[in-house]
Amino acid sequence: MPIQPIRIVIDKSDYEMQVYDVQGWYATYPVVFGNNSLADKCVEGDRCTPEGSFRIVNKRKHEKWSRYMGLDYPTPASIARFNELKRQGRIPKNATPGAGVGIHGTWPHDEYMIDRYSNWTNGCIALKNEDVQDLYSYVPIGTPVQIKR
């Protein structure tokens, strides 16, 4: 088991989640995302995975995706970026930033999506079910999560 506190770093360009504890690197898991562009989330419905610094704010067993760890998206920094894009006219005036972004497993029998780097979520981070169950077992609420590209 990792020694608390731990932190998670997700690199979208490498399709990897790295877990670090007080002694350094602890684990690496393959992951997939939403939109194939790997772009930063701009608006609700764009299927993009947000980038930035987040925290795990809730955890639960999930009927479809094995385990779910919700992130605190949108953060104040996410809202500021969203408002700036809106001010610049780069997103519609009636757009919303979206919510409900988390870390979860796959549909039953769909773990091959991870092996194939098939981005299929609506903006969440997906792991193989065995990996998400492992992560869920030791990651507490409040764990920092950095998502970068």
UniProtKB/TrEMBL annotation:
Pathway, per record: Cell wall biogenesis; peptidoglycan biosynthesis
Family assignment from sequence similarity: Belongs to the YkuD family.
UniProt keyword annotations, A-Z: Cell shape, Cell wall biogenesis/degradation, Peptidoglycan synthesis, Transferase
Protein name: Murein L,D-transpeptidase
A biological-process GO annotation: regulation of cell shape
Active-site residues per Swiss-Prot or TrEMBL entry: 104 (proton donor/acceptor), 124 (nucleophile)
Domain L,D-TPase catalytic: 6-148
Source organism per UniProt: Flaviaesturariibacter flavus
GO cellular component terms listed in the entry, alphabetical order: extracellular region
Cross-referenced InterPro entries: LD-transpeptidase (IPR050979), LD_TPept_cat_dom (IPR005490), Transpep_catalytic_dom (IPR038063)
SUPFAM superfamilies linked to this entry: L,D-transpeptidase catalytic domain-like
GO molecular function, one term: peptidoglycan L,D-transpeptidase activity
